[in-house]
Design brief:
Number of strands: 10
InterPro entries: Acyl-CoA_Oxase/DH_mid-dom, Acyl-CoA_Oxase/DH_mid-dom_sf, AcylCo_DH-like_C, AcylCo_DH/oxidase_C, AcylCoA_DH/ox_N, AcylCoA_DH/ox_N_sf, AcylCoA_DH/oxidase_NM_dom_sf
Domain Acyl-CoA dehydrogenase/oxidase N-terminal: 8-119
Pfam families: Acyl-CoA_dh_1 (PF00441), Acyl-CoA_dh_M (PF02770), Acyl-CoA_dh_N (PF02771)
Strand content: 5-15%
Domain Acyl-CoA oxidase/dehydrogenase middle: 124-216
CATH topology of the largest domain: Butyryl-CoA Dehydrogenase, subunit A, domain 3
Number of helices: 12
Number of domains: 3
CATH superfamily of the largest domain: Butyryl-CoA Dehydrogenase, subunit A, domain 3
Oligomer: single chain
GO molecular function: acyl-CoA dehydrogenase activity; flavin adenine dinucleotide binding
C-alpha cells in the first residue's frame, strides 16, 4: 500500500496504532457482535476512549487536530476488521461536524472537549421514515415556547442512535427551505426516547435506529446557529463529512475483502495446488487489487483536498461512488472464488458483502452521486458546500 503522496510519517504512525488496536481489541469481539446482532456499547466506548473521535477537532478544544485524511485512516483501519466499528466512528464524526461548523463558542467549549476525551458520542439525526432522503419533506417540528423549544416527531436511520449521548436533530420550525433548524438534544432529556433497535442485514454491533420526541423541551441555547440554518447543517454534514466518512468505511471493507481472498486462495488446494495459482482466480484477485488501488486514490485525494480547504464536493461524490461500487463488485467476485463455503459464516466474506451493502444509501445512493456528477459536468451546480464552509458562508452563529 503506497500512499506517500498524501500521507506523512504521522499518518503512518497513526495507521499502525489503530491497526494494532483493531487486531487486539476489535477482532476478538466480532463473533460476539455477529451473534448478538445489537449495538456493542463496551467496544464503542473503548474506541471513543482512544481519543480518535477528536481527530478533526482543533487542539484548542482538546482534539487531535489532524484533519480528514487522518480521520479516513482511522475509519479505514477499524472497518478493515469490523465494518460496524468503522461505521460507529464515521457516524460520530457527523456529530462533530455540526458543532465545529455551526456551534456557538459556548457549545464548542462545552461539547468538543468531551467528545475529544471520549466522554461523549455525538450523532446527527435528519432522516424520517416518510420523507427518506428528501430533507425538505421532514415533518418533525419544534415550536418556540419562551426560552425553550418543544420538539415532537421522530428520526430514523440515525447512526449511533443507541449509544449516542448528544443528538444533533434537524426539524421544522417554519415553511420551506428556510424553515429547518438544528438543535443539540441530550440523550437523557425528558421527552426523548429510543425505539427498540431493529435487527439488520449487516454492521452488527453498530446502531442506526429511531429517535422519538414527545413534547421534548429544549433550551434555545441548544439551537445550532440561527433559525433557518437546519438545511445547511444537514447538507454540509452529509456532503463534507458523510461522503468522506462512508468512503473510508467502504475502503476498509474493501481491504478486508482482498486480504481474505488472497489468504483463502493461497490455502485452498485444487488439482494438487493452491487455487491462487489458477489463471481465472488470478484474474479475479488482480481485478480486486486494481479496484482497491483506484478506490484508495479517490478516497485519499478527496480527503487531502478537504484538508487543504479546497473546493472538493465533486471529488467527494466520486470517492463515495467509486468506493461503494468497487467494494460491492469485489465482494461479489470474492464470493465467486470462495464458492459454496463463502455462503457460510465459517468464512467472513459473507459478512463483508452484507456490511458493504449498508454503505450504499447514506449520504446519497450511487444513482444520486452520478446525477450530481452529471450536473457538474454540464455546469449546472449551484456552488460547492466545501467552498462555502471554508469561506464561512451560511454558517454564521448569531
Amino acid at each position: 500500500m503506497t500512499t506517500g503522496y498524501f500521507t506523512t510519517d504521522q499518518h503512518d504512525a497513526l495507521r499502525a496504532e489503530v491497526r494494532a488496536f483493531a487486531e487486539r481489541e476489535v477482532r476478538p469481539r466480532v463473533p460476539e457482535m455477529e451473534t448478538q446482532r445489537t449495538v456493542h456499547h463496551e467496544l464503542s466506548r473503548l474506541i471513543a476512549a482512544q481519543r480518535w473521535l477528536g481527530v478533526t477537532i482543533p487542539r484548542e478544544y482538546g482534539g487531535m487536530g489532524m484533519g480528514h485524511l487522518a480521520k479516513t485512516i482511522i475509519i479505514e483501519e477499524l472497518a478493515r476488521v469490523s465494518g460496524a466499528m468503522g461505521a460507529m466512528v464515521q457516524a460520530s464524526q457527523l456529530g462533530v461536524a455540526k458543532i465545529i461548523h455551526f456551534g456557538s463558542d459556548a457549545q464548542k467549549k462545552t461539547w468538543l472537549p468531551k467528545i475529544a476525551d471520549g466522554d461523549c458520542l455525538p450523532t446527527i439525526a435528519v432522516t424520517e421514515s416518510a420523507s427518506g432522503g428528501h430533507v425538505l419533506g421532514m415533518r418533525a417540528r419544534a415550536v418556540r415556547d419562551g426560552d425553550d423549544y418543544i420538539l415532537n416527531g421522530h428520526k430514523v436511520f440515525v447512526g449511533n442512535s443507541h449509544v449516542g449521548d448528544l443528538h444533533g436533530v434537524v426539524v421544522r420550525t417554519g415553511l420551506g427551505p428556510k424553515g429547518l433548524t438544528a438543535f443539540l438534544v441530550e440523550a437523557d432529556r425528558p421527552g426523548f426516547a429510543l425505539a427498540p433497535q431493529q435487527s439488520t442485514m449487516g454492521l452488527h454491533g453498530f446502531s442506526f435506529g429511531e429517535l422519538l420526541f414527545e413534547n421534548c423541551r429544549i433550551p434555545a441555547a441548544n439551537r445550532l446557529g440561527s433559525e433557518g440554518d437546519g438545511l445547511a447543517v444537514a447538507y454540509s454534514s452529509s456532503a463534507l463529512y458523510g461522503r468522506a466518512n462512508l468512503t473510508a468505511v467502504s475502503l476498509g471493507i474493501h481491504q478486508a475483502i482482498l486480504d481474505e481472498t488472497v489468504a483463502y486462495a493461497s490455502r485452498r488446494e485444487l488439482y494438487g495446488k493452491p487455487i491462487a495459482e489458477l489463471d481465472n482466480v488470478k484474474q479475479k484477485i488482480g481485478q480486486i487489487t486494481s479496484r482497491l488501488m483506484t478506490a484508495r486514490i479517490t478516497a485519499y485525494h478527496a480527503a487531502y483536498l478537504l484538508d487543504q480547504g479546497l473546493p472538493c464536493d465533486i471529488e467527494l461524490m466520486n470517492a463515495k461512488l467509486v468506493n461503494v461500487e468497487s467494494s460491492l463488485d469485489s465482494a461479489r467476485e470474492s464470493m465467486e472464488i470462495h464458492a459454496a463455503i463463502g455462503l457460510t459464516t465459517e468464512r467472513p466474506i459473507e459478512r463483508f458483502l452484507r456490511d458493504a451493502y449498508h454503505i450504499y444509501a447514506p449520504a446519497g445512493t450511487s444513482d444520486v452521486q452520478r446525477v450530481r456528477l452529471a450536473e457538474a459536468a454540464m455546469g449546472r451546480t449551484k456552488g460547492q458546500w466545501s467552498e462555502r464552509i471554508v469561506r464561512g458562508e451560511a454558517v454564521q452563529v448569531h
